[in-house]
Sequence to fold (154 residues):
Amino acid sequence: MSRIRPALLAVLVVAATGFVVASNGASAAPPGKVGVTTTRAGGASTTNAVYTHIVELNLAAGKYLITGRATVNNQQALTDLVSCNVYAGAFDHVDANTETVESGTYGALGFSGVAVLATAGMVWVECIGNSQAPGPFTTARLTATTAADVISLP
Fold:
């Protein structure tokens, strides 16, 4: 029968359970809730000259890695240019992306950024088309993952 060294056992327990094992064998919950992910999807038609709310996440105060993607389904008669913005809190800009989508085709947009919410608030995606009303149908999935800290590098 093989024996597992105590240090290796502690690493295995942390990896498997997320709990920290003290040297005396007692366990404690990990500090904070780092790495918790919240996600939601939504969709709406984008129209000319009007930003349309696509999806939102209501989050607690904290630091978050924000990721997402949108799919533009242009079944309208004209090629359309769809631009999407991601905002947090009181219109803090997180990211943006633009895609030209020909009639009868799909386009994809990706988002990535950091949001720091001093108080509970919302992170959301809004999109606008440029050539027709109604415009293409845009769906988006937005994901926020809690972070222990945010470090901005030069």
User: Anything to note?
Assistant: The beta strands are 20-21, 27-28, 37-45, 52-59, 62-74, 80-88, 92-101, 105-117, 121-128, 137-146.
